[in-house]
Amino acid sequence: MEALRVGGLTPMTTIDFPGKLAAVVFCQGCPWRCGYCHNPHLLEAGAPVAHDWSAILALLQRRRGLLDAVVFSGGEPTLQSALPEAMTQVRDLGFELGLHTAGMYPQRLKEVLAIADWVGFDVKAPWDRYDTLTGVPGSGERAKASLGQLLDSGVAFECRTTWHAGLYSQERLLAMGAALAAQGVRRWTVQGCRLPAQLMRNGAPVDQSFPTDRLKALRGLRVGLRELGAQAA
Ligand code: SF4
User: Fold this and answer.
1) What confidence tier does 164 reach under pLDDT thresholds 50, 70, 90?
2) Is the pLDDT of residue 97 over 60?
3) Residue ranges covered by each domain of the chain
4) From ligand 1's centre to the CA of 228, what distance in Å?
5) Residue 80 to residue 177: CA distance in whole angstroms
6) Residue 231: predicted pLDDT
């Protein structure tokens, strides 16, 4: 089997796995094409790897006792059939395992949930808005199925949403948060999107400010607020 294809590495971070000192492995490849993607260099699955997997394992061997965890991020980690074996190798070195995923491969997600300790799950939009956002038909159904797997697994997780007014309204964002809470999601973090040109209206940025009552409604849903709070009207 081909080794995990890695497009980037952060040797140490305190913000990618709550409460843990972690390294982040950025897996190469993602089949979706979100307009706001901040890692476009990681999208092509066949791009040359930036790091050999064996070199990363050697680095982690030297970091035993210094780091708590390793987070598999991307791109989309669950794209690669090598992911379960790679995660198992890292667990065998004594690290806890984090995973960042948008949930596009529910079956592989189910496989790795058996060994993962924490998941950051990207909820991009109401399920019926996914196709527009990702450019891929059926993407919302896949993400929805993956969230179901995650809820059933008992693995600790957080949902994250990057909201942009150009694609759906504040009302739909609030309704989405309420629906997630009703499904059993207990942590949901919302952050504002830095809009690329194609998501602007008439050449001007879409107003992303949140009226105070809506911010209160978001807080009522017990969400974490990044950036949106600073943009409150
Ligand atoms: S799912 Fe993530 S990595 Fe893939 S295109 Fe969207 S934002 Fe980028």
Assistant:
1) confident
2) yes
3) 6-231
4) 21
5) 30
6) 40
Tracing tokens 């409604």 back to the chain, one arrives at 217
Query: In testing the pocket of ligand 1, which one of 28, 30, 164, 194 has its CB within 8 Å of the most ligand atoms?
Result: 30
Q: Which CATH superfamily is domain 6-231 in?
A: Aldolase class I (3.20.20.70)
pLDDT at 46 over 90: yes
| Closest residue CA from atom 6 of ligand 1 | 34
The Cα–Cα gap between 102 and 119 comes to: 10
Give CA 209 to chain center in angstroms.
Answer: 24
Protein residues whose CB sits closer than 6 Å to any atom of ligand 1: 30, 32-34, 37, 39, 43, 74-76, 102
Q: Is it the case that residue 185 has pLDDT exceeding 90?
A: yes
